[in-house]
Amino acid sequence: MVEAVALGETGRADVALDLLRSYVGADVDRVRADVLWKNEEWQKAAEQIERMYGDTWSGSEPLPDSERFDLLRAAIGYALADDRLGLERLRTKFAAPMAGGAYSHAFDVVTGPVDGQGVEFQSIVAEAGAVDRLEAFLEEYRKLYVDGDVGPSAAATPAPNKG
Q1: Are 43 and 83 contacting, i.e. CB atoms less than 8 angstroms apart?
Q2: For the range 27-30, what are the long-range contacts, defined as Cβ-Cβ under 8 Å and sequence gap of 24 or more?
Q3: What does the CA dihedral 72, 77, 80, 82 come to, rounded to 10 degrees?
């Protein structure tokens, strides 16, 4: 996982994703999304993030800020890829869970019928891009594997052999 993050940070998205191909797990999905985002593969990054949250849109629990930020990044990815269908789907599914909390206005701006070159849109994109995902990954990794009781094998597991 650490090697894939490092490869993604150095622009080697293809190698990083290939390295992760045989693993499954939420932490692996997150690294995939981050590698794609870092390498400006907006469409694929947005799709990966949307897949990560599956049907959480249908739940009644409020979304944590970290999930809200991920969904904002998915919206930005779809907007940068000029995927209006993806934006509309994301807005339809997540407008209610995103309402009233952190990033709700930004989500409305990005998923709404606003010019993608607008000043407010550009400001939101710049803020989202400024977040250091490597540092966030390392913090999560430390919490899970160093400070916690979980070993790497419990979180990231090899995918079943489809051979």
Answers
A1: yes
A2: 27/1, 27/140, 27/141, 27/144, 27/155, 27/156, 28/1, 28/156, 30/137, 30/140
A3: -100
Question: What would the two tokens of residue 140 be?
Answer: 């999560």
Residue 112 DSSP symbol: S
Residue 110 near residue 79 (C-beta atoms within 8 A): yes
**Unique residue bearing structure tokens 């940070």:** 9
Q: What is the pLDDT of residues 58-100, one digit of tens each?
A: 877 788 998 999 999 999 899 888 899 999 999 999 999 998 8
Q: List, as own/partner pairs, every contact residues 124-127 make where C-beta atoms lie below 8 angstroms and the sequence separation is at least 24, other chains included.
A: 124/72, 124/76, 125/76, 125/80
Give dist(CA 102, CA 69) in Å, integer. 8
- Host H or E run for residue 93: helix 84-98
